[in-house]
Amino acid sequence: MDVALVPPLMVSTGFLPTGSLLQSLIHICNEVCSMEKLPVLQARNISTMIRRIKLLTSLFEEIQESNGPLPPSSILCLTELFSVIRRAKFLIQDCKDGSFLWGLMQTELVSNQFYVLVKELGRALDILPLSLLKVTADIREQIELLHRQAKRVELFIDLKDLERREELLVLMGSNSEKNKKNKGFIDLVKVKDILCSIGLRNTMDYEEETLKLEAEAHKQAGSGGLIVVSNINNLISLVSYCKSIIFIDDEFEKPSKEDLKVQSTPSNRYYDHSSSSQSLIPNVPDEFRCPISLDLMKDPVIVASGHTYDRNSIAQWINSGHQTCPKSGQKLIHMALIPNYALKSLMQQWCEENNVPQVQSSPSSSSDLERSNSKRDLYEHAVDHISVVKAAVDAVKLTAEFLVGKLATGSPDIQRQAAYELRLLAKTGMDNRRIIAEAGAIPFLVTLLRSHEPRIQENAVTALLNLSIYNNNKILIMAAGAIDSIVNVLESGNTMEARENAAAAIFSLSMIDDCKVTIGKRPRAIPALVGLLKEGTPAGKKDAAIALFNLAVYNANKVSVVFAGAVPLLIELLMDDKAGITDDALAVLALLLGCSEGLEEIGKSRILVPILIDLLRFGSPKGKENSLTLLLGLCKDGGEEVARRLLMNPRSIPSLQGLAADGSLKARRKADALLRLLNRCCFQSQNQIG
């Protein structure tokens, strides 16, 4: 929200004709006065500004109706007023359409912008010759009053806005390291009330606010500096977390009575679970004790070896540099810690039956956050507006683990919503993708790929696609046995979007060489991609083409791509302007030249050479390079026949000569090689004739 950057209307080079100027003034005033759904923030400044502009509208309309000549000073004044009103319109529009939370944080700055505009309004009215204008006495009195008020106006900052902001910042900082010692909790009921008071009332409002904050962060990245961007990211984390938790009743099932029993008394909720206190708990079953600390586990998690440990203990073991399972000595193929919900449920039941205080999870585990009948008043939350990086990470951890818990134990409706939220959370940021995987989401998402409910399947495969962008997650997804399920979705998914995102997931996973081999060995994977190449939307065809390209980089997969019938489809797509994947199709065809089966299949086409000649003229730089690669390969294999077809086409030689002179480095080299080859063919033909 930076309306101060809107340039004033330049007036030094001349003025608009009087009629046009008045018409423009009346039009822009009406635009301002007709604005609807004005924001709660800056309410008084906005309403006062609109009231002033309404008064000016009456003046402009009377001047227009008089239809008489205007003194030069009045034209200058009207031009300045147009500039001020125009900037006021932009400012109000920004308050209305911009991020409410960021507007709250910028309360003083925005208020000052309104103040500056009113002062400029007063200065413009200084040169208005009211006595020389044909207006009624009422209008003259109103404008004189407006002028006096503008001259003596003072900066107004709404104390309610300041109170809202201060209370929100205090709540956001309530779980800082200092407050953690005193068991500080963020009060989501108060946060919800504050957000509601500034216009965020439902999940749609929260989603829109997140998008607005992301847009503001992008805008500020070039000028606002790291601190400003970090503060905005902090707000994004808060909104994301609160959306998942505050609207639990709307998005997830009501908590069961058993859930409400957990930590129902203050003594249980704030019990200090130190090692010494745990040693007093009698007869703890061995399976409930952490193999490392030998204490009753707080947050049981499963490592890659299949053994269960307390999260804090195994995390310290891994962070100290160990890459093996402490119990078995087996090397861990990945470092993800997957919550053991079954064991945790048994532990809770045992604690209740033996009157053992419930074990408090660490801040990184939110799957068992306390719930109460008053919409789960208090949640431990790690958003600290001073330490932005920590706040963002902790908020994502809480959100991710909360959602993974819902994936594990929820009904289909809950799983659908949780998968959707994880899909969105994994859409941006490598840290988000890493944290979601560490929360144990991947195995549950892989299981949901087999769901018959279209939206669950679609959200699950798209979440895995987003997670796979982080390289370490590629290994975790493959280790979870996801590839067969992804191929099933690609082959016969419930929606076309699910099939297309499955193709994109295969492309992402195949960025790792070992994955190219594994995927290529699945007999249905490549044919399913070729099927999407034929049946998909333009976006789906592109996803399939780039996935085939990645797989075909591995030589053994080239033959599979050819035998799956990809070549005729790829050549056909070269002529399909609507598909828009010419470059991708050319790249795959150029790769398939590397195997004899591919070269033979490509050589069977009678329409390919004329298409390639046209692409030498009209294709993209990359497309021209791949067209030259194909023509060179065909000439070397097809010899005189392909060369003769090239020589007979009047456009081929000029196009090759142009690329040899002005193309990219690769294009020049290939064009030169092709021209030399054609010269040899031509020379040999002349000798045979002679």
TrEMBL record:
Keywords: Repeat, Transferase, Ubl conjugation pathway
Catalytic activity: S-ubiquitinyl-[E2 ubiquitin-conjugating enzyme]-L-cysteine + [acceptor protein]-L-lysine = [E2 ubiquitin-conjugating enzyme]-L-cysteine + N(6)-ubiquitinyl-[acceptor protein]-L-lysine
PROSITE patterns the record matches: ARM_REPEAT, U_BOX
Pathway: Protein modification; protein ubiquitination
Limits of the U-box domain: 283-357
Pfam families: ARM_PUB (PF25598), PUB10_N (PF25368), U-box (PF04564)
EC number of the protein: 2.3.2.27
UniProt feature coiled coil, ranges: none
InterPro entries given in the database record: Adaptor_Cbl_N_dom_sf, ARM-like, ARM-type_fold, ARM_PUB, Armadillo, PUB12-19-like_N, RING-Ubox_PUB, Ubox_domain
ARM repeat intervals: 440-482
SUPFAM superfamilies reported for this sequence: ARM repeat, RING/U-box
Any one biological process term the GO annotation gives: protein ubiquitination
GO molecular function, one term: ubiquitin protein ligase activity
Keyword Repeat: yes
Name of protein: RING-type E3 ubiquitin transferase
UniProt organism field: Prunus yedoensis var. nudiflora
